[in-house]
Amino acid sequence: MASPFPFLLSLLLLLLASLSSLPDSSAHLTLDYYAKTCPKFDQIMQETTTSKQMSNPTTAAAALRVFFHDCMVDGCDASVLVASTSLSKAERDSDLNEALAGDAFDVVTRAKNALELACPGVVSCADILAVATRNLVKYVGGPFFKVRLGRKDGRESVASHVEINLPRANASMDQMIDMFTSKGLTVEELVALTGGGHTIGFTHCKEFSNRIFNFSSTSEVDPSLNPKFADRLRQMCANYHKNPAIAAFNDPLSPGTFDNLFFKNLLNGMGLLASDQILVADPRTKPLVELYARNQTVFFETFARAMEKTSVIGIKTGRHGEVRAQCDRFNTVRSQS
Ligand code: HEM
């Protein structure tokens, strides 16, 4: 009789492969986590995110960026929402997070207030941020993705952890790939996530000013930029030193819609950030930019899968976290280094 060993081995390998995409800790999360303890969770989240986005259309981009910055730094535990105290500087006040938009914090606070009335002490801020982001991405035209629930809120938020976990606009491709792969995200997912993030929202002039003013000794403007686009940016940002709030749309062709135009723009020299532009310059990522520019379905599928993975990075469950009463402070104040 043939040995069952090869068959069992391949079954085991298949099982391992299917588990390998999500970290072990995510096994504690479930889609219907609040079904009994907070039956109105989905409805309250839907109502809150829709009304906030309708009154402030910048909310979707704000939330998506805040969510990404939360998950990359010590996991999706709402540590980015915590305010600094006299004893400790929180993530939110690190240099890299200084431009996180207030609408993201506001939509979480609104949802938290409504949920605390309906089911006090039950729903974590980390779950609220994850679901708000998912709902808002969908609202502006992006793909739906599943968000499993039950993540707890973290008990620390340390500003100095931000710099080592998030890329800056002048990051090299190696640095970006290292940061993403260290969180279990692939190069395909890096490109899809970045394209998803930068197909909506804004960037302040200071983030790309070195590409449009005094670029080099031989060229005033980065030659990889489309010249007409560079001219428009130079006009728009002419006074950015005096007015640092001036910002450009990340995707000038469809700024409020989640679509694959970011990738088409990149191929036409219309990426704002140097970190976006190297996606088309580097041979490891260029074919992916071309693929997502050609095929929005593949982009959406990869983005949705990557967001599902991102949403369980470093999550805290059980005693490793808490359900905060207010999203901007820990339940018990602890001193931090
Ligand atoms: C790959 C490396 C990345 C770098 C270097 C980077 C850097 C930046 C910078 C410098 C800005 C402009 C901020 C400002 O001036 O206010 C920005 C905006 C934004 N980023 Fe990224 N980003 C990266 C990836 C991502 C990813 C993966 C996402 C989400 C999945 C994302 C989502 C966003 C969003 C939504 C905005 C607009 C925010 C708003 O309008 O409020 N970014 N990013």
From TrEMBL:
Enzyme class per UniProt: oxidoreductase
Residues flagged as site, Transition state stabilizer: 65
Cofactor(s) annotated in UniProt: Ca(2+); heme b
Residues reported to bind Ca(2+) 1: 70, 73, 75, 77, 79, 91
Pfam family, one: peroxidase
All residue ranges annotated as the Plant heme peroxidase family profile domain in the record: 28-331
S-adenosyl-L-methionine among keywords: no
Residues noted as binding substrate in the record, renumbered to the chain: 167
Entry's cofactor comment: Binds 2 calcium ions per subunit.
Binding site for Ca(2+) 2: 199, 251, 259
GO BP terms, alphabetized: hydrogen peroxide catabolic process; response to oxidative stress
Leader peptide range in chain numbering: 1-27
Keyword field contains Nucleus: no
One GO CC term, this protein: extracellular region
Catalytic residues (UniProt): 69
EC number annotated for this UniProt entry: 1.11.1.7
Binding site for heme b: 198
InterPro entries: Haem_peroxidase, Haem_peroxidase_sf, Peroxidase_pln, Peroxidases_AS, Secretory_peroxidase
Chief location: secreted
GO MF, one annotated term: heme binding
Reactions catalysed: 2 a phenolic donor + H2O2 = 2 a phenolic radical donor + 2 H2O
Disulfide bonds: 38-119, 71-76, 125-327, 205-237
Subcellular localization: Secreted
Protein family: Belongs to the peroxidase family. Classical plant (class III) peroxidase subfamily.
Record function comment: Removal of H(2)O(2), oxidation of toxic reductants, biosynthesis and degradation of lignin, suberization, auxin catabolism, response to environmental stresses such as wounding, pathogen attack and oxidative stress. These functions might be dependent on each isozyme/isoform in each plant tissue.
Entry protein name: Peroxidase
Originating species: Actinidia chinensis var. chinensis (Chinese soft-hair kiwi)
